[in-house]
Amino acid sequence: MQCKEHKRKKNHVVIVTSDAVDANVRQFRIRPWMFQIITGVVCVIIGAVIGYFIYEEKLWEISRRHSSELQAAMKELEDDKLALEEEKNALQSEIDGLNAQIQILSETVNQKVQAETELTAVLEGQMLPTEFPLTGSASMQEVTEGDFICVFTASAGTMVVATAGGTVTAVNDDSEYGHNVWIDHGNGYVTIYRNQGEAIVKQGDEVVQGTTLFLIGEDNNTLGYQMMKDGVYINPMDMLAISG
Fold first, then answer.
1. What is the CATH number of the domain that holds 217?
2. What is residue 152's DSSP assignment?
3. Are 194 and 220 in contact (CB under 8 A)?
4. How do residues 113-141 score in pLDDT, each as one tens digit?
5. Is residue 127 situated within a structural domain?
6. Are 203 and 169 in contact (CB under 8 A)?
7. How far apart are CA 75 and CA 59, in angstroms?
8. How far apart are CA 78 and CA 76, in angstroms?
9. How many domains does the chain have?
10. Spatial separation of the C-alpha atoms in residues 62 and 59, rounded to whole Å
């Protein structure tokens, strides 16, 4: 008869003690399968902790990388902002310079327009037959009605002059006064000068206010002066009165 060998059961004993003098010693028996489970759980936990730290390190690395990239992007944006600000300031300076030039040009144009307006007024004034037709004193004999001839008597050496600027349109012989000069002033006014002396101007000449037309001598000291406005004779003295 054979004896059966009993398989011995292995148990793990956990002894818990303390440094105290009167401390009791406790023993815990743990079955192998339970020990394996506990060991496995501990390993899993340790692995999980290690994995967590590794993962956490990767997360921190990614975070640091993202932070560095973000800082670089912010630095680039800041540089772009500064560059744009400098460009804006440069453009503003250019605009201010252009505005200053525009202001100067505007003032120059205004001054030119004012000068042209004043010159036009002066030229228009010089084209109005408002001046006296003789350079010296003279006596007026009469003003005939209808064709309004003002007859002046002047001393020798006096000059018959154009009362305004214009164009000599005719120089004719005159049955009563010897010669006559017609001047068109370009604004509807025409003046006629009648004298026995020789005319100093000829047809087509451009004259200005004060241009000599005749020279008064001892034998031609009479001037017949007429004025027309839009083809109608008017009294020349009315224009002289307007001019003061």
1. 2.70.70.10
2. E
3. no
4. 998 888 878 777 778 999 999 998 899 88
5. no
6. yes
7. 24
8. 5
9. 1
10. 5
